[in-house]
Specification:
It holds the Pfam family DUF5963. With 106 residues, the protein is α+β, with helices and mostly antiparallel strands. 60% of the residues lie in helices and 20% in strands. β2 and β3 (64-69) form a beta hairpin.
């Protein structure tokens, strides 16, 4: 299993996939928190924001709450998480390889 992740292409693909999953989870938790906040307060409208991007609008219609997703912003959040995770993974691997070689300045 460890040999599969020696290939940088495989690492980047896995990092992108995990970043998208992480972005979906963060959006899910933010929307869930937004619904909890709106239901516990007297608000009739609420916009769920992540990193300054509105990902979900919640409105009270009668006695129930209805939400409208902003799919393009949610997709952008997933891309941001993917890029961060892929970059962080490659930096960590590069630092490990650098320390593992025992580079000396003779």
């Amino acid at each position: 299993m460890k040999k599969k992740f020696n290939n940088s292409t495989t690492r980047v693909i896995v990092s992108i996939f995990l970043g998208i999953i992480l972005g979906v989870f963060v959006c899910f938790m933010a929307i869930r928190t937004g619904y909890t906040y709106v239901k516990s307060s007297s608000l009739t409208e609420y916009s769920v924001n992540i990193l300054g991007f509105t990902i979900f609008d919640i409105q009270k219609v009668g006695n129930e709450f209805k939400g409208t997703p902003n799919n393009s912003n949610m997709m952008f959040i997933g891309i941001i998480f993917s890029m961060i995770l892929a970059t962080a993974t490659e930096i960590v691997i590069a630092l490990k390889n650098r320390k593992g070689r025992g580079i000396t300045n003779d």
